[in-house]
Amino acid sequence: MAEAQAAAPEESAPQELNGHAEGAPEALGGADSLDAGMQALSVYTVEGDTVVRLHQTNVVTVRADGEGINMALKAFAPGLQVMADGHVAEGNWRVTNGRDWSVHFFDGVSAAAMPGLFEQMIMQAGGFDGMTPQFMGAMPPGSVPGSASPSAAAGGAMGGGYMGGGSPEEAATNLEAYDDIPVEASGEDCPNPVEQFAELQLHPQLMHNIEVARYMRPTPVQRHAIPVGIARRDLMACAQTGSGKTGAFLFPVLHQIMAALDAAPDMRPRGCAEPRCLILSPTRELATQIHKEALRFIQRSKVFSVVVYGGAEMKTQINALDRGCHVLVATPGRLVDLIERGKVRLTSIAHLVLDEADRMLDMGFEPQIRRVVEREGMPPVGQRQTLMFSATFPKEIQRLASEFMTRYIFVAVGRVGSTTALITQSIHYCEENDKRRLLIELIAANAGRTIVFVETKKAAEHLEEFLYRSQIPATSIHGDRSQREREYALASFRRGHPAVLVATDVAARGLDVPDCMHVINYELPRDINSYVHRIGRTGRMGKQGVATSLFSPLNRPVARDLVTLLQEANQACPDWLVAIAEQSGHGGGRGYQGRGKFGGRDYRSNAQVRRYQHSAVGAMPGYSQGYQQGGYMPQQGGGAYGGYQASPHYQYYNQQPAQGGGEGGSPAMMPMGMVWQQQQMPPGGTAGHEGHYAGYAQ
Ligand SMILES: Nc1ncnc2c1ncn2[C@@H]1O[C@H](COP(=O)(O)OP(=O)(O)OP(=O)(O)O)[C@@H](O)[C@H]1O
Prior knowledge:
Layout: E1 16-17, E2 20-21, E3 26-27, E4 41-46, E5 49-54, E6 60-64, E7 69-73, E8 81-84, E9 93-96, E10 102-105, H1 114-124, H2 150-154, H3 168-175, E11 183-186, H4 204-212, H5 220-230, E12 235-238, H6 245-263, E13 277-280, H7 284-298, E14 305-308, H8 314-322, E15 327-330, H9 332-340, E16 351-355, H10 357-361, H11 366-374, E17 385-390, H12 395-401, E18 409-413, E19 423-429, H13 435-445, E20 449-453, H14 457-469, E21 474-477, H15 483-495, E22 500-503, E23 516-521, H16 528-535, E24 545-551, H17 559-568, H18 575-584, E25 609-614, H19 625-630, E26 632-635, H20 643-646, E27 652-654, E28 676-678, H21 685-696
The chain binds adenosine-5'-triphosphate (ATP).
GO molecular function, one term: RNA helicase activity
Pfam families: DEAD, Helicase_C
Keywords: ATP-binding, Helicase, Hydrolase, Nucleotide-binding, RNA-binding
């Protein structure tokens, strides 16, 4: 797509006439009455949409419909243009003076942030006709129907940090649901976790953007992973679905890039992108989501992000790449294509992120990943930072992943591959020919957004049609739909119209749909890891969710893994399922490391392990400052992880050794309040470990 010169949005925009929108805008207390003396900016609603308007200059109308943002541009400020870096519905906007200045303008801008953003745009562009604009500040809470806060007012993907609705305070309270999850960090010289974002001393602009996003405090995975990322260490992190992994990799990377751009002038080449950070994602929708998330946090900074993925117009993406970027979010296939066309060079990569890393490295993606990482000029292991995140991390994939990293830290929040306790899971026995009836009952019984998962594209099509015939409005997302249809389906589902989405596993990973209340496995997956990701579309960010699965005789192979998973998560496990699991022997699914194999969370048997239980108790003598202040308590396991005790270089001890869980059992947790000390690592210890790492990297 040519640089979309403020193209008319897909949805119709209000007609601007002399400062008023046609169709009698229902002013928020009256646009003009907001402040009669302050005419620079007004905010009002038109048919339920939020409109932000710069007066006097008659320049821009921003229309947020609660999901995306659509800009209807009449004529922008003298010397300024708005360009789309990608599909306009995805909010890939930047405002530029066409020379050396531009700033991202994105649908993640919260209403609260808008005035500041406009101010910056205008100031950096040299002001408007010599006029100093005045801004009215944030919209008052509740100013948009159905919203409780400015961030919620902005709605959907709009800047509210807590996108599940509700106030930031509610979000913080919901986040407490994760506080008592035990955390393990292994690997040598592991940086300490933090309690607050403020402790991280992030780049001021990033910190400001985190505040604007209303992230009040880091989630557990963020507390542990961000310090590791900032220390430029390689990291493999495993945390439950919906617990904030995206921020856990974005913040340290953006912090480093912002600091580097402050220190040295930007030499963005033209005609080809040479990103400093490459983020790989297995699906197009997830790539877009990560890019949007990045845009929220690079606002008003010098950092540029571009997203490229298959199924979308190549020309638009090439145009965006031609202007250069620091962060490139990509799906592997399209990336390889663009590298071949000479549009992307990987020689400047300082940070490589594999989101949904286990999926990225499984057999389907491994060849493309190897090519991108090993044969396209990317700086090798040790010269770049590699970060991998997922909610599941089978051992064999960990082993493979370790080839792409060195001296890495492994962080596990909760059990690797476990489901969050926030999701209530139930399994119904059902013959194939009875499933449709049951599905209708389930949808009727649970109001709210529901994703129905099936195994194949055909099944998705048929089921969508069946629901339509049954007068249940539904849409679908699967590989046979065009990218445009997929995006449209997801956007409508996010808005809640329709409230039912039929999906294949293309929607199983990473997608963050606020207020998705219910996941139904109409057809169970063969791989238990897929089950974990699928049901993780609900019960996110501390909110409760429901997952219902229809188990038919065809699903026998997954019975055993399912039983293990349900028991691990303290969920009701029907007797009939246990009986089937016992009959069917080993799980057919690849990957779930059930209780028997849980001992090796970090597959490195001799990694140094630290265990933490978040504690409100406070300071723990004998341990590092950060933990004492943050109320963390390092813990020692018993024999469950046997290997770490064998390490000659490093161990924790306490006054009374905790009981081990035995081979392969659960790690013993130290009772709260015990005093911990850290034994010094003898000289040469590190070298010993390096030798070990070098060994398995071959
Ligand atoms: N510290 C925080 N405070 C408030 N909200 C947060 C915080 N961190 C993340 N969020 C919000 O939580 C939601 C879930 O985050 P995210 O999508 O990163 O989860 P995830 O762990 O990557 O999930 P998945 O395993 O499904 O990929 C998002 O809406 C995000 O904006």
